[in-house]
C-alpha cells in the first residue's frame, strides 16, 4: 500500500517525458490539457518548440490532482486512517491500480502530443503511405526518446513533481525516482512510442491484433461431488501465512509516526523530536520486526504440533520501495526460510511470489523478455534454492523457469503455486510491446504471459485424470488487481476443473475475507442466454449462476494497519474440502506495553530493555463456522453469508456484518468505520471473483 502515491509519481515521470519530447507549440495560448476538440499540432512538424519547465510541471501537477480528486471522493472501503493525516499513504489504495490507465489516457489526449494527425486530413483512411509516414515519425520520436538526456530530464522532473505534490519526503522521492526510472523509461519507450501501436490508435494504420488465448480445455466436464464435507471427519490442519513484510532495518525506539511509507527504521534527521518510539513487536505504521516473526513461529510450534504444511502466499520484504536492494532482499528471504526450517523443522512450507519480492517492487517482466538488466530470473533462481528445503527437483526447476511450481503432498493431493504477477495491473511490464525481432512479449491485451494459464489448465487436467485434488496458491485475489482477460480465463479454468480444485489461497490485501467463484454466467432469476460463446475456452454462460469454488484470502502477518495475523484451515482429508477456518493474532500494543513498563521499572532505554517469550500473547480468534452460524465454509455457505450480511437494517444481517468487519480489519485495531456505502461494496466484493464483474452483476 506504500506504493500508492509512488505510482502517481512514476506515472507522471512518463507524462513528463512524453510532454518534453512531443511538444506541440511554444505559444502560451496552446492549452496544456486539451479537450477532444482542441486542434493537435499544425501541419506535420514533429517538434515546433518547447514548453517551459514550469508549464510542464503545472500540467503534470494538474493530472495528478485531478486523478487524486476523482479517486478519493467517497472511498471508505479500503482506507484505514493514517496516524499522520497530511501524509495518508493509504488513502488511494482501492483505485491505485487504475492510475496507469488514467495517465496513459492523458498522454494520448494532452496538447503536447506530436501526433501526425494532419496526415489524416491530407490522406484520410488507414494504410498505405499515410501509415508508413506515421510509423516513420513515431520511430524518429522513439529514437529521440532513448537518449541519456531524456533519462536525465525524466528523473529530474519526476523528483520535482514528487516534491511539489508532497507525495513523499525528499529522500523517498529521490530514492524512488532513481530506482524505478530505468524500467519506466524502457516500458514507456516501447508502449507510448511503439510505432505500429501508436499509429493504429490514431486510425492511420490497421489495428494491431493481440495474440488470442490459445488454451484448450476438455469439454467433457465430469460430474462434481457436491457432498458437504464432514466437520467431524478425518481433519487435517493447514496454516496460511501471508504478507509478512519483514523489515530488516526495523529498530526498537525509532520514530513510529513519520511521513515515510513505513516508519520504525532509520531516516534522515529533520530535527523533529521523537513523538512515538517503536515498540519491540511492531507498530501500526510499520512493517514487521524479525522478533515478531520469531514469536509467531514459536507460537505455531507450541500450539500446532500436528501441522505439517504451511501455505505462504508472498510479500516477504518490507514496503521500503524507495530503498529496496536485491541482495538485502535475498538475504532477508533466506533468513526467513531458515527461521521456518529452524523452528519448524518437520513442516513443509509452500510459497507463492508476491509483488514486493521484486526490485523494484511490482515490476515482473515476463521471462521471454531477454534484456538482462531487467530480467527477474535472479529472484526465481534464488527462491528455488532457498525453497529446496521443501521442494523436489521438478518443482525447483519449474520455479526457476517462471516463478510457479507443482508440489505433491501425497498421492491424492497437489499444491500448485501460481506466479500471478503476470496478471497484475500494477505490473507495468504487461503494458509494454517491444517491436524488436524476437522480443514481442508482453502487452496487457496479451492474455497469458509466460503461458501460466496454459500450464495451469494442463496440470489441472492431468490431476483430474489421476483423481487428485489441488490446492492453488497465488498472491493476488482474482477479483481485484488482475487484468480482465487473465482474470476471466483463470475463472473459466477454475470452473471447468471445480471438481479438482480444493480452494484458491491468496493474500495481498492485508484483510481477512473471501471471494466466491461462480459457475454459470447469469444472475439468479434471469433467463439464461441461448447457445455457447465459442470465443471462450470453457463457456458456461448459458447456465444459471451458482456458487462453486472459494478463494480464501488471509490477513497480513505484519502490524501495518492491523494486528498481525495468520489463518488455520480445517480440511476434511477424505474429500480434501475445507471445513472451517480460524484466525490467530497478536495484540502488539499489549506486548509493547509490557516491555515499556519493564523499561521504566529498570530505568533502561526501550531499545536496551530485555524482551522475554511471554511478553507477546497470541490469541485464537473465533472460528468461522461458530462465528457466522455456518455448516461449513463451502462456496454455497459463504455465498449465503455474504447475502445475509448485505441486508442493511436487518438485525441478523447487521450483527453478522459487524462481526465480519471486525475480522476483516484484523480486529479493527485502528477503529475503522464502515458506512452503508462501504458495506454494500464490501458484501458485493465477496460475491465476485473476476476483475470485470461489478455489483450490478452479482
From TrEMBL:
Its main location: secreted. One of its GO terms (biological process) is sphingomyelin catabolic process. The keyword Glycoprotein applies. Residues 127-209 form the Saposin B-type domain. Zn(2+) 2 binds at residues 315, 355, 475, 508. Disulfide bonds join 131-205, 134-199, 162-173, 258-263, 264-286, 423-482, 674-678. InterPro entries: ASMase/PPN1_MPP, Calcineurin-like_PHP, Metallo-depent_PP-like, Saposin-like, SaposinB_dom, Sphingomy_PDE. It is found in: Secreted. Its cofactor is Zn(2+). One of its GO terms (molecular function) is hydrolase activity, acting on glycosyl bonds. GO terms for cellular component: extracellular space; membrane. Keywords: Disulfide bond, Glycoprotein, Glycosidase, Hydrolase, Metal-binding, Secreted, Signal, Zinc. Residues 1-28 form the signal peptide. Pfam families: Metallophos. Zn(2+) 1 binds at residues 243, 245, 315, 510. PROSITE patterns: SAP_B. Binds 2 Zn(2+) ions per subunit. CDD domains: MPP_ASMase (cd00842). Belongs to the acid sphingomyelinase family. Converts sphingomyelin to ceramide. This is Sphingomyelin phosphodiesterase. It comes from Fonticula alba.
